UniProtKB/TrEMBL annotation:
This is PAR1 protein. Residues 1-24 form the signal peptide. Transmembrane segments: none annotated. The keyword Signal applies. Keywords: Signal.
Length: 182
């Protein structure tokens, strides 16, 4: 049986989402955890899933607004179809460029189902790759033509040695052409 406090909370959450939906406004903190990751708020900032230890010791999750602004994309929640096509997980806390080192992940990310149809996820990993000194379109081309060579090139590019400074990543991102989604 549902307690009145839980019922009140559920009604509040449902009405909050309805009101924001009616106003076409997405606020990360109002999103349920199962749609948080790969969502972009109305402000243009990425939503991210965070975890914390609750008072009872259990791990809880919450959706937060990051400081990362996505140019030319706001009020966007990634589709389940794209999440599956790109091989990403909505329940992961934080993301890392380490996944680019996994051939199976890179193959899914670079597949036409993902790369040409899921601009939000591709933009995110484009920026992660750039922060490691890797140009995602080149990595995907190498992945399509010779997957083993793609991994060897990625490892020899210095991406495996650790991240570059945020200033260098910013410079790389500004100078690099935007990814093509067509």
């Amino acid at each position: 049986m549902v307690s009145s406090a839980k019922l009140s909370f559920l009604l509040f959450l449902a009405s909050s989402l309805f009101i924001h939906g009616a106003l076409a406004e997405i606020v990360c903190e109002d999103l349920p955890k199962d749609v948080c990751a790969f969502a972009i708020a109305s402000s243009g900032k990425r939503c991210l899933l965070e975890n914390y230890a609750a008072k009872d010791g259990n791990m809880e999750y919450q959706c937060r607004t990051s400081e990362v602004v996505v140019e030319k994309m706001a009020e966007y929640i990634e589709t389940d179809k794209c999440v599956r096509a790109c091989g990403v997980d909505r329940n992961s806390v934080g993301i890392s460029s380490d996944s680019l080192m996994e051939p199976q992940f890179t193959a899914k990310l670079c597949s036409s189902a993902c790369y040409q149809n899921c601009p939000n996820i591709v933009d995110l990993y484009f920026n992660l790759a750039a922060g490691e000194g890797v140009f995602l379109p080149d990595l995907c081309e190498a992945q399509r033509s010779n997957p083993h060579r793609a991994m060897a090139e990625l490892m020899s590019s210095g991406a495996a040695s650790g991240p570059v400074s945020s200033e260098a990543a910013y410079t790389l991102n500004d100078d690099a052409p935007a990814p093509s989604y067509v």
